[in-house]
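Private note to self, pasted from the team thread so I don't lose it. Backbone tokens:
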């Protein structure tokens, strides 16, 4: 207390205070400072926003009480509520304060185009994300290298995901599902045939099992029951909103992340070394594919680069796909009619007369239109990534169509801001999608449907090669769960193969029931949008398939 009072007395000498203040007892003086100073700061901040004229060339700033902290709580609790409410007030372009950062949100297809379609001289993903990703993935790859190198790394990844590779995955994924449901979850004919499970937990396990069996390779799959799982958990603990906001805190989780990164990187290095010595047999998986890759200037990927790319792929696919499969299955558990229709789709196309099914192939997946529509609709309503950030590297002039109609001048997003795309907003925009909040897979089957047509119109847009093969630019599409532009996802086809095979396995073999009174709410406090308390039960169908 005496230390505090000395400090206050020093402060008092700097700031003129009224006579009566000095006669107050010490505890009252402390209380006055504790209440008075924040009130003054908040008051000045409010005054500045409501009473002082604002720079008409800058986007409007979301009203907030606390400087520096800004709208962090409002945004963090439910980003979509925040985006939609701010859109009502400020239009498609506005800036908010997020723990000292100035983040300009650009909404709608035009807004998405501004950030996702921006030139590298104007926007940078590297500068927005490297503090989060480099300690997890490792150095020299993804956002720890020039953008032009990332584009080539994406090309290498794509070359490891050939049609031939993808064709080999469904049987492997099916085997993993069979093993997981029968043995890990214990739902098989010899035991009680119904079980209540936390879906998100189960899907997280199934996604890492199936990704390691296919894309990651035999050695990773074999290590999953041992040390690898713990390393993954520690590394994953470094991939949180806290790490995004504060890259270097002296917390145990940050230490564990760093130790795990080194250990996991060494683990992949060992795999590569052993393979090179010819000590292990393996399939032609992603590691094997990356081993042959060289940058355009002739420099080959080092073993360390390969290890770090493998970690990046593991992390990129894990939560995105486990959240997507969980949401899709939750909707199926919530809608017995849709579940039955999916079952009938399987029966009609692949059912044998004896009640069994023939094995699903990669080509078959394309035939399952309702399944495809279910996954698309899941990604429309539950895009795993709600906010896509870029750092603004040079002033961005905003096209007049994005400035509020009442404003006279066109806006500029200044260098040093972050620009954010939130494709989920256009994906749930009631002006674009009929009954936008209702899960309706059939909207994707209706050829004349407004939404499908709008998406089609954009997906057939200009083809661009950013360095990893021609892709449709798609930056103005109202549907972008896999992003758009130069940072567009290269794991989409893998994810679809994995998700389709897992859901098919479940639909063919089990019925499902929601085990919570209402459809699970969304948890936005994790990096990836996840369901809260997603309890369901699986019951074995009559015949084992
Ligand atoms: C449902 C599953 C998935 C969804 C919804 C998804 C979504 C996305 C999105 C939105 C982006 C763009 C990020 C940005 O612009 O900053 C992205 C990029 C990327 N994703 Fe995925 N992803 C999924 C699965 C996967 C999988 C399985 C892999 C790996 C096999 C993967 C690898 C990547 C890579 C390498 C990038 C490029 C990052 C960049 O260029 O900056 N993703 N993903």
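Design output:
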């Amino acid at each position: 207390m005496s230390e505090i009072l000395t400090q206050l007395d020093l402060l008092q000498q700097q700031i003129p205070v009224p006579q009566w203040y000095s006669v107050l007892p010490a505890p009252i003086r402390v209380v006055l400072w504790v209440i008075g100073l924040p009130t003054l700061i908040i008051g000045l901040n409010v005054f500045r926003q409501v009473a002082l004229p604002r720079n008409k060339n800058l986007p409007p700033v979301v009203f907030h009480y606390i400087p520096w902290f800004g709208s962090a709580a409002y945004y963090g609790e439910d980003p979509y509520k925040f985006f939609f409410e701010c859109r009502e007030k400020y239009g498609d372009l506005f800036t908010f304060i997020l723990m000292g950062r100035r983040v300009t949100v650009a909404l709608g297809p035009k807004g998405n185009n501004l950030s996702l379609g921006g030139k590298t001289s104007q926007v940078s993903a590297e500068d927005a994300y490297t503090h989060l990703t480099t300690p997890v993935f490792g150095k020299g790859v993804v956002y720890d290298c020039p953008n032009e190198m990332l584009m080539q790394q994406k090309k290498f990844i794509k070359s490891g995901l050939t049609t031939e590779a993808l064709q080999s995955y469904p049987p492997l994924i099916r085997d993993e599902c069979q093993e997981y449901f029968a043995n890990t979850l214990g739902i098989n004919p010899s035991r009680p045939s119904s079980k209540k499970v936390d879906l998100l937990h189960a899907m997280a396990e199934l996604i890492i099992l199936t990704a390691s069996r296919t894309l990651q390779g035999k050695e990773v799959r074999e290590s999953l029951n041992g040390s690898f799982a713990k390393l993954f958990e520690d590394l994953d603990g470094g991939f949180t909103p806290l790490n995004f906001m504060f890259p270097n805190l002296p917390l145990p989780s940050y230490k564990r992340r760093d130790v795990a990164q080194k250990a996991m990187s060494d683990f992949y290095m060992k795999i590569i070394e052993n393979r090179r010595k010819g000590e292990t047999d393996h399939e032609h998986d992603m590691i094997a594919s990356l081993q042959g890759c060289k940058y355009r200037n002739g420099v080959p990927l080092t073993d360390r680069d390969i290890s770090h790319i493998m970690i990046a792929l593991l992390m990129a696919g894990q939560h995105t796909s486990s959240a997507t499969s969980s949401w899709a299955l939750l909707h199926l558990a919530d809608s017995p009619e849709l579940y039955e229709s999916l079952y009938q789709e399987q029966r009609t196309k692949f059912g044998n007369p004896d009640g069994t099914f023939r094995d699903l192939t990669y080509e078959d997946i394309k035939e399952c239109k309702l399944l495809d529509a279910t996954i698309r609709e899941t990604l429309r309503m539950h895009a795993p990534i709600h906010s896509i950030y870029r750092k603004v590297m040079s002033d961005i002039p905003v096209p007049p169509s994005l400035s509020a109609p009442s404003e006279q001048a066109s806006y500029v997003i200044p260098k040093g801001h972050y620009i954010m795309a939130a494709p989920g907003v256009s994906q749930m925009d009631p002006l674009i999608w009929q009954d936008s909040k209702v899960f309706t897979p059939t909207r994707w089957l209706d050829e004349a449907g407004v939404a499908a047509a709008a998406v089609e119109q954009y997906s057939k847009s200009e083809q661009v090669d950013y360095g990893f093969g021609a892709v449709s630019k798609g930056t103005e599409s109202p549907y972008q769960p896999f992003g758009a532009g130069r940072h567009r996802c290269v794991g989409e086809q893998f994810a679809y193969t994995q998700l389709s095979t897992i859901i098919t396995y479940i639909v063919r073999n089990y019925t499902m029931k929601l085990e919570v009174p209402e459809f699970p709410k969304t948890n936005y406090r994790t990096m990836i949008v996840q369901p809260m308390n997603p309890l369901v039960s699986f019951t074995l169908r009559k015949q084992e398939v």
